[in-house]
Design a protein that fits this description.
The chain is built from 18 helices and no strands. The model has no long low-confidence stretch (mean pLDDT 89). The protein has helices at 2-18, 32-53, 60-80, 86-90, 94-111, 117-136, 145-162, 168-182, 192-207, 214-229, 244-263, 269-289, 291-297, 313-327, 337-357, 364-371, 378-392, 395-406. It is mainly alpha-helical and 409 residues long. The protein is globular.
């Protein structure tokens, strides 16, 4: 699979450079009055969130009720302020996604009771991607053993490779044995960490035989190779010394391509292309959101490398343009046009919000132009975000708590 992956990666690298660095048409903007009205709606939503977070959850049932109330409140907010229609939101399999997420938490906790909320949340994000592909392919949205195993593989391996107390030689040996196990070699685990990794690979093997589904394991080897190669992004380097774009694209693209093969063995060429592009775009969104932490940690990304040296206006615009070209490929699935519009709208809002939170890396003129396409003023969002964090910590941390409570019998 390495040759097709290289072709896919180069295709999207070429697509990236074909994208303009001007801001695309993001549709009608918001007047200052409309933004203020939207902010009043958001304040009402945040008041409900604040009430829920101020009352500790003690059981799975309480967590489910809280999640249900928040979901209903967010739907109202999405219709009133974010530009989504009721018809679009009705197309989302919200209950199926919720049930699959709850099952993921239970199964992950059953597999390893020692998993932290952060690890489960991190792994769960990949499971959500797989469920999204199931939905696009009109397959049942459900957790499978392979989705569970694949989603858990990388929190375990990443945590091991990121542990500063483990010597580099040991990490390299672990990575090589991990590769051999993915390739089908019969190995005896040398420690508890390897036992867990090998058990997860066995879960995938139990669902997909290597003889009948070779592409599944080739895709897993492809993401392992990309992850191994991307270790060079964890060191300082002069521009041009490390292929930051190529390594980042390969890491993101192979990640979701593997999801695609675990979800369906009947992907068309167009659907493989979309899955790979989706993974790249998701990686770009994560990197755009993490400019600050990546810069501080010395991690090289498309954005962290130039950050602080040049304004990122053009890079952000290219990301908008690239995402639009990737999402146009949703036509390879049998989905309504309104679904593509919903996903594109969500991606634009996410990008705008991520840029607003990293505002020191952009010019004032660019931020002012972008703010007109935000349902809320950037200053208001900053104020509410700071207030929320002071009161409750990150929303992600609360979601981790909810997920852990859902795992209770």
């Amino acid at each position: 699979m390495f040759a097709p992956v290289r072709e896919l990666n180069q295709h999207f690298i070429d697509l990236w450079w074909e994208c303009d660095t001007s801001l695309p048409d993001l549709g009608p903007g918001y007047t200052a009055r409309a933004q203020i009205e939207n902010e009043e709606n958001l304040l009402r939503f945040l008041k409900q969130v604040d009430h829920l977070l101020s009352n500790p959850l003690h059981s799975r049932e309480e967590a489910q009720r809280a999640q249900s109330r928040l979901g209903a409140a967010f739907r109202c907010l999405a219709e009133e302020t974010l530009g989504f229609t009721a018809a679009q939101l009705d197309l989302l399999p919200s209950q199926a996604f919720s049930s699959a997420s709850e099952e993921f938490v239970r199964e992950a906790r059953a597999f390893d009771p020692g998993l932290s909320g952060e690890d489960i949340y991190q792994a769960g994000r990949n499971a959500w991607t797989a469920h999204g592909l199931q939905w696009l392919l009109r397959l049942p949205v459900q957790l499978t053993p392979s989705i569970l195993a694949y989603s858990l593989l990388y929190p375990y391996s990443d945590n091991y490779l990121d542990n500063p107390d483990i010597e580099v030689a040991a990490k390299r040996a672990f990575n090589e044995r991990f590769r051999r196990r993915l390739a089908g070699d019969s190995l005896t685990p040398v420690n508890a960490q390897e036992q867990v990794i090998f058990d997860l690979v066995s879960m995938i093997e139990n669902q997909f035989s290597r003889s009948n589904y070779p592409a599944v394991f080739e895709s897993l080897l492809a993401i392992h190779h990309a992850q191994s190669q991307s270790l060079s992004l964890l060191r300082a380097a002069a521009p041009g010394e490390v292929d930051v774009l190529g390594l980042s694209f390969a890491k993101g693209g192979t990640s979701v391509l593997a999801d695609g093969y675990l979800v369906s063995d009947a992907l068309t060429d167009a659907q493989r292309h979309y899955s790979y592009g989706h993974g790249i775009f998701a990686q770009l969104l994560d990197d755009l959101e993490d400019i600050e932490s990546d810069s501080q940690a010395g991690r090289l990304t498309v954005y962290s490398q130039p950050a602080g040296h040049w304004p990122l206006d053009g890079l952000a615009n290219r990301t908008f343009q690239f995402g639009r070209k990737v999402l146009m490929r949703l036509d390879c699935f049998d989905v309504e046009e309104s679904v593509r519009e919903l996903i594109e709208r969500g991606a634009n809002l996410f990008l705008i919000d991520a840029i607003s939170r990293m505002d020191r890396y952009y010019t004032r003129a660019y931020l002012q132009a972008l703010e007109t396409h935000s349902p809320f003023r950037f200053s208001f969002l900053r104020e509410q975000r700071n207030h929320f964090f002071r009161q409750h910590g990150s929303l992600e941390r609360w979601m981790e708590t909810v997920m852990l409570l859902q795992s209770k019998p």
